[in-house]
Structure formats: structure tokens, C-alpha cells
Amino acid sequence: MTASITLRYFAARGRAQFLRYFLRARQVPFTDERVALTADFAAWRAIRDDRSIAGPFHKLPVLIFDGRLVAETLPIAEFLHGALGDPARLSTDDNLCHKMLLSSVYQDVMMPIGTLLWAEAVYPGVDFGALAKRTLERMQQQLKGLEQTLLEWQWLERARSRPVMVADCMLWEELDVAQRALGPALNLQAQPLLARFHRDFAARGVCEALKDEHPSPITGRGAAEDDIITRVHASLGAAA
After folding, report:
1. ω before 56 within 30° of 0 (cis)?
2. Residue 10: which H helix or E strand, with range?
């Protein structure tokens, strides 16, 4: 692919890390533009009102593909799926499954973890320990459902005969993030298929290498995030 591509997002994993994995895994050259995170969000405040940079909704990520700006996480994922010709590599039913998997992992794995890590900043006075426990319960239920669905779809078996897809990268990233955020209490091994996918994912080496090259927080909480995660683990450990 010879397109000029820029992926613009914060210096965090957040809603764009799986897109970085995908482009890297598929060996698509792109500019990985990372907006610096500071306590006052100065770098972001300097650009957020410029629609040519921050997109029509004044938020990140945005993708610039040969001068065409694409905003919002799921539309970017769908755009890249099409731009790399992947719909032709899947059946009609598998394309629908791919779209459904993206939506489910985004809404039911990515977003609850982000909400937990931002909770005290967004909702002052929230019962943080109770929220951590509810998030763990919700995550365990969601992963149980994902396990059953991917077994029924024969997702891992079919993945062996095709390139890495953008939904694969989102699933790997959010399993990785959930384990980091929720710690041992999550027990991914309770879902053998998901645990095997995380361990044996064809692009795992690419994902781990990118994480090592750009050590980043999950969210924009920056330096506060490590303390927040420590408290999550303590809350869940106390509940065990």
C-alpha cells in the first residue's frame, strides 16, 4: 500500500492502540502521531479547536488517509478494514461477525475499563471500590460471552487461514488492558479460548514490540494511572 497515512492520538493506548498494532502487523507504513500528555493537557488544548487536526467532533483518534480525514474509533477501524481489502478475504457472514466483534469489544471491554480509570476525575465522590467490583463482575460476564461466541464462530480456526484483522488486534489489546487494569482477580484462564488467543495471537510479537517502543498509560490519566490501578487491585483483592 502506497497511501500516505497518519494516525493521530494521545501518547496513550486508549482507543487507538489496536489501530497501531493493525497497521504495524500488516506492514502498512504510517505516521504514528502522538499528542503529549501533561497534567494541564496543554498540547491537546492547543490543537483541539482546529478541525483539520482534531476532526469534526474535536476529539481523537483521527486518521488521515491520502488527505482524507476519518474520525471516531469504530469508523476508522471499518475504513481500514475496507482500505486493506479485507472484506474480500472474508465471507459475508464473517464480515458481519467482524463488525459485531469490533462493536462488542469496544462497548463492553474497552469502555468499562476506561470509565473505571477515569471515574474519580469525572464523578467526584464515586464509591471507587464498589465500582471496581462491579467492573470486574461485568468484565467476567462479558468475557464468558465472548468465549462462547468465538467458539461458535470458530474464530481462531478461521484466523489461521487469513491475515490479521483489525478486530483481532482490538480483541488482543483489550484482553491485555483488562488484565493490566483488573489484575489477578480477572483470571483470564477461566476462559481457555481467550487465554489461548492472547498467548498465541499471530501478531503478539508486533504488539509487544510496539508497547516496548512506546511505553504508555492506558488512558490520559498519565502519572496518576499507576496509583489508580494499584488501588483497583487492592479493592479487588480485598473482595476476593
Report:
1. no
2. strand 5-10
Joined grid coordinates for residue 29: 507504513
- Residues 138/150/174/15 CA torsion (nearest 10 deg): -100
- The residue type at 234: A
- pLDDT higher than threshold 70 for residue 105: yes
Q: How many residues does the chain have?
A: 240
CA separation (Å) from 235 to 72, 129, 132?
33, 5, 7
The HSE-up count of residue 127 (CA atoms within 13 Å, CB side) is 5
Ordered structural domains, the chain, with CATH: 5-86 (3.40.30.10), 90-239 (1.20.1050.130)
> Average pLDDT of 51-76?
97
Neighbours of 213 (CB within 10 A): 10
- State yes or no: cis peptide before 163, omega within 30 of 0: no
Report residue 229 as a C-alpha cell. Answer: 490501578
Inter-residue contact 161 to 89 (CB < 8 Å):
no
DSSP 54-77: HTTTT-S-EEEETTEEEESHHHHH
CA atoms of 238 and 215, how far apart (whole Å) = 29
Task: Say whether pLDDT at 222 is over 90.
Answer: no
Q: Please give the model's pTM, rounded to 2 decimal places.
A: 0.96
The x, y and z cell numbers of residue 70, run together, are: 476519518
* Helix H or strand E encompassing 31: strand 31-35
User: What is the identity of the amino acid at 12?
Assistant: A
Please give the mean pLDDT across all residues of the chain.
Answer: 96
Cβ distance 109 to 115 under 8 Å? Answer: no
